Amino acid sequence: MTTRANSNTLPTLLRHPAGSLATATALALAALTGLGAGKAQAQTPVATVPIVDEVPFIVSPDNVTLEMLRIASVGAKDHVIDLGSGDGRIITTAAKRFGATGLGVEIDPSLVEKSRKIAAEAGVGDKVEFRIQDLFTTDLSKATVITMYLLPDFNMRLRPSILALKPGTRIVSHDWDMGEWKPDQTTVLSVPDKQVGREKSSKVHFWTVPAQVAGLWCGAGPLGSYSLRLTQNFQEVTGTLQRRERRWPITGRMQGPTLATEETAVGSLVLERDGQALRLAGGKGPVALAKGTSFTAAKGSDCGKGGKA
Ligand SMILES: C[S@@+](CC[C@H](N)C(=O)[O-])C[C@H]1O[C@@H](n2cnc3c(N)ncnc32)[C@H](O)[C@@H]1O
User: Fold this and answer.
1) If 78 and its partner were Cys, which of 66, 100, 129, 259 is the partner (CB 3.0–4.6 Å)?
2) Residue nearest (by alpha carbon) to ligand 1 atom 8
3) Is there a contact between 302 and 215 (Cβ–Cβ < 8 Å)?
4) What homologous superfamily is domain 62-208 in, according to CATH?
């Protein structure tokens, strides 16, 4: 790691006199800040910045740190993991201000040491842990909330592991998104003293890991003559509700394990992925009256007689 910043100050490239690591860091910095990486890279548009193997240390300012924790509704029941935890401010704040437990993983040992000291001084040393660890080999399964301030390429490399986490796990990223997986919410914050990038603002993106619901689902009990065929693109769901020869188009959105559909001619549905079933948890209209009934994943290519699909 070559670049260090004091709180909210412009990072400087310090350690590597020349060579590929310095160049990689400069490119990383350029991408992180949205700036060109100086004269040598003046012709390199940020959009074509190649895959880089490191992210410079730049802190999330206090108002951004607070918004990252607020947007994810962090509370005392949460376990927050910060990927690339820097000086540990996100994890320490999550514990101190919101009562959460947390883990920060960071490749720079001096930053880990600093984080432990700051957390101890803040009186939350027993609620948080900081490890010298590569974020790509970190077990994320215990996280209820994951925070990150990395680079676009890092976010994209993490995306498959994040999407495989327990539905409902909340994800927050400072400034960078995750490509076609659009955020559920984005806040733009004024950061007048932001000394990196052209914009005097930061974006905070928020996602909830969606359950997988694509496929054919067959109704049971009072919904025995119904079937649901769903297609999913991250949290966006489209499909068809069918009863015998009648079909109603479905459009809906996942929030963690829950699919909420828009109104159709037969009302709206709220369905929850519950193990191998999709349980009707609510909604409005005649189908929703069967609340509590489940659809189960089809074993073949149709549901048999009633809800043929
Ligand atoms: C932009 S800073 C963000 C620091 C902190 N999360 C914050 O928002 O204030 C990114 C941090 O990620 C760390 N980092 C980069 N690559 C890493 C890796 N592969 N594993 C763990 N940490 C990494 C860097 O050392 C740096 O401290």
Assistant:
1) 100
2) 60
3) no
4) Vaccinia Virus protein VP39 (3.40.50.150)
Closest CA to 68 of 209, 170, 182, 196: 170
For 230, the token pair is 């769903």
Supply 88's token pair.
Answer: 């540990």
Instruction: Determine the distance separating the centroid of ligand 1 and the alpha carbon of 85, expressed in angstroms.
Output: 5
| Pocket perturbation via mutation, ligand 1, pick of 2, 21, 53, 55 by most ligand atoms within 8 A of CB | 55
Alpha carbon separation from 222 to 114, 217, 227, 284, 291 (Å, rounded): 60, 15, 12, 16, 10
Where are the domains positioned within the chain?
18-53, 62-208, 215-297
Supply the pTM of this predicted model: 0.85
One digit per residue, the tens of pLDDT, for the chain of length 309 reads 222 333 332 232 112 222 333 334 444 555 565 544 333 333 333 333 344 457 899 999 999 999 999 999 999 999 999 999 999 999 999 999 999 999 999 999 999 999 999 999 999 999 999 999 999 999 999 999 999 999 999 999 999 999 999 999 999 999 999 999 999 999 999 999 887 788 899 999 999 999 999 999 999 999 999 999 999 999 999 999 999 999 999 999 999 999 999 998 889 999 999 999 999 999 999 999 999 999 999 998 889 754 445
Residue found by looking up tokens 């659809």 in the block: 295
- Which residue owns the Cα nearest ligand 1 atom 26? 57
Q: Where are the alpha helices (DSSP H) in the chain?
A: 20-33, 62-71, 89-98, 109-121, 152-163
